[in-house]
Amino acid sequence: MAIFIDEKNGLFTLHTERSTYQMKVGPFGIFLHLYYGAKAENTDFSYRLQMIDRGFSGNPYQADNDRTISLDSLPLEYPAAGTGDFRESCLAVIQADGSRAADLRYQSHRLFSGKKPELPGLPSVYHDDCQTLEVTLKDTSTQLTVTLCYSVIEKLDVITRSARIVNGNKAAVTLDRALSCCLDFPEHPYDLMTFHGKHAMERIPERTPLRYGTTSVDSVRGASSHQQNPFVILCGRDTSEEQGDCYGVAFVYSGNFLAGAQVDQIGQTRLYMGLNPENFSWQLEPGDTFTVPEAVLCFSDQGLSRLSHKLHRLIREHVCRGEYQLARRPVLINNWEATYFDFDEQKLLTIAKNAAELGIDMLVMDDGWFGSRNGDQSGLGDWTVNEQKLKGGLRSLVERVNALGLSFGIWFEPEMVSEDSDLYRAHPDWALAIPGREPVRSRYQLVLDMSRPEVVEYLYQSMEAVLTSANIQYVKWDMNRHLSDVWSSAVPAGRQGEISHRYVLGLYSLLDRLLKRFPNVLFEGCSGGGGRFDLGMLCYTPQIWCSDNTDAIDRISIQYGTSFCYPASTVGSHVSVCPNHQTGRTTPLSTRGVVAMAGTFGYELDISKMSVEEKEEVRRQVAFFKEHASLIAQGEYDRLTNPLENHRYAAWQFVSRDQRQALVCFVLLQATCNPEPLLLRVRGLEPGRMYAVNGQGNYSGSALMHGGIPVPFLYEDFASLTFEIQAIS
User: Fold this and answer.
1) Which of 196, 159, 145 has its CA nearest to residue 295?
2) Distance of CA 107 to CAs 139, 140, 485, Å?
3) Which of 444, 511, 523, 554 has the smallest number of CB atoms closer than 10 Å to its CB?
4) What is the pTM of this model?
5) Residue 183 near residue 247, CB atoms below 8 Å
6) How far apart are CA 526 and CA 173, in angstroms?
7) Is the peptide bond before 519 cis (omega within 30 degrees of 0)?
8) What residues are annotated to the active site?
9) Under 8 Å CB-to-CB from 489, ≥6 apart: which residues?
10) How far is CA 722 from CA 282, 590, 719, in A?
């Protein structure tokens, strides 16, 4: 069993393989958080509670003259605003009388096997071998209830949290804030790791020592965003890749979010994650339920690397789903950086013919195949084939590509509309816009109101028609701007605060329908690259285009930050042309291949323009990747260097779960004259087992992990090496 309930003492204990999470029904039904950390069995952590009279921290009325009980200082499991806890809250409610308070107290609980019920309209982690605890809290003065849901995935050291808020009153109430979780710790010697960025430079890790007050990250862009990622790590000051305590919290959601940590007046730390309260409100009619999206909690007492291993396995096996969940993804070539909008069927077939000869599996036709789309100022929303470009139509092109031995993929940007489009001319009210105000344009396009069922239905019918018209096996799903002018003509003025969340629910409903209709199609998420890289999208798209920046050296940093939460099997990564279109940098083709192999692998260039020698290198890369694809996708990934600090070289590795095989990748970032010796210490091997490196030698795992692999002297910036490690005993 993973969940233990001490009915007599009101104690709830959740055990995973290496962690313990404990809660308690405290005085007057206050639901307390007691502990989350390394596994500790047969322990009641109530002894850690310190009841002290603290000035300006008020007391529940029921406490009478006992001034030591205060919601402002006790560790709470799901704090609500307006009743004496002045810290960050999970819940804020406007009651029918206009008051803004909810005082939540324990009411009941239930325990069951498995991970149901599912969250209506929302993606979530799935796992059969787990237990779930539901704890219902009730407002002391109204019929509002909150049911907290905890699912324990024991073997992965993962706990998922979500909540259902039910209005049992006879009048409507309004939610102003509805977070998924918080964690209260009785101390604050912690760092907070967040992952910031911008378009073409996403998920750069930043580690900040917590100070008194609040440190937070968020998105109000309608998407999880390039600028911040809905994943954070709370860790000890001395935590490193290989040792120390750390807590990862990831949000299974693709829209506006808020995450942060607050150190209160007495040095306690509160970590929280959930829907962003800015511009959010949700009106709950009598009997209505609001479901809060799921958050994933994961603990490691063996450092950041082990935390990543657990999250990677969870995402690969219990977030991603469908035919491509664990299967090798096709090595594809995308025509975008080869042609941009300037293509026809002959250009595509030339690229396809050359790609087929080199072992590539798929041709993907990117933006520009539909409507009047010859640039980025028109055509979005009109999902019909432009037969001036593709004169034989889509079916003819796909059949000719298939005849070459390649499968075929296609690009969509369903959520957007161009003002110069038949769709916009027919339905201008389908775009998000505020009456009386000129809308904000971004990339010359507006955003469709995905909160409207008729918009979702139009998109489903349009995409279904395209996907059934030819043998299409892959969809790149793009989103090239964020949401502004968030207003919908489909709901009354008092409910406009619901639109951003309803937009995301509309997106999920469309994805869900398409995946059920086309279960054999591989969907890749994209939002100007990695602008919507989150667990919510990964429930529908098992890979996401990591960044529009295809420069190999920049990608090392981008993929480094991405790896703290997300496995290589989810990271869309391609070899592109040099000089690179984003940075102008020239990098050896071999190095571009090594970096792109830390992902799903493919090409983004005009392969027909490559030299004979370059084509032969591509042939070798494709064969090498296919040979190692299972190890890369399902092995344990380790960051051997931090490229943001080590400017001399970067290194990373993949190790099979049985520890018999490893692939170590090395890129020299800066060549120097007369360099110091460099020994690359690998990780994760079996100490007493003997290994060969690149087919030579007889080294113990201990030797390779502690003595290291000597790196040969390299003579140019951005040169690269790979070390194949194979057990020989």
Assistant:
1) 159
2) 9, 10, 41
3) 444
4) 0.97
5) yes
6) 37
7) no
8) 534, 614
9) 429, 435
10) 53, 10, 11
